[in-house]
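Lab channel / #folding
Pinned by the channel admin:
"Please post every new chain as: sequence first, then the structure tokens as a reply. Keep commentary short and put observations after the output so the thread stays searchable."

First post following the new format, from NK:
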Amino acid sequence: MALKKFNPTTPGQRFKLISAFDEITTSTPEKSLLLPHRKSGGRNNEGKMTMRYLGGGHKQMFRIIDFKRDKESIPAVVKTIEYDPGRTARIALVCYNDGEKRYIIAPHGLKVGQTVVSGKGSSPEIGNTLYLSEIPFGTIIHNVELRPGQGAKLVRSAGSYAQLMSRDGKFAIIKMPSGETRMILQACKATIGMVSNQDHQLESSGKAGRSRWLGRRPRTRGVAMNPVDHPMGGGEGRASGGHPRSRKGTPAKGYKTRSKKKNTNKYIVEKRKK
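Reply from TO:
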């Protein structure tokens, strides 16, 4: 999963640093696992803009990803490793012995022809999905469930991973990518390995147009606005804007927004690093 650097033949190529897509084996997705991806442009059902800086972009199709891995004890062979425009990680098309095809998040090191399986009694190998009660201590995991049978909700982006530290009663102690240590029920599932495309954070688009292709419109800085539009706006000349805060006045740069009365605080063993 190397990065590709370009010769500076144009201003847009000078700082362009993107994935070489070496691991991609096909450019044609599985039709039965596609859905139309309709874009809103940040407007609600009344046509009012509720999300700024969204709009445009290349036409995309939505890939249906199997986050539940509920076909237990049935081996599946990896057919392809594919690009997904809707996420940072790569996806893998797997074909089960009964003929059903599904997409899964591709872990780092997964190869075409490899066999993956989920459920009780599965070996802790890359791509296999096990219950937290059966995973050895210290194992690198991703696609972690928060509630049994809900499907993976945590650790799904490119290059991310969590680590199973220990068990306590009916809970497993997981160290999250943020540095937070929290308890999750042992009846939840997780997949072995680290998420693919770990070099994603090093990529550089090189020009504004590549962001527009992804549906991202230009973002206006708060200090460039008027006082009526933003708390950091206004001032004579190029004023700094005062204390960093959002458009609605919430302080940024370290201000804690998590509620002290949040019900799930009791599952957090150690808070994330500042």
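NK: The chain has a mean pLDDT of 96.
TO: also worth noting, The longest strand covers residues 76-82.
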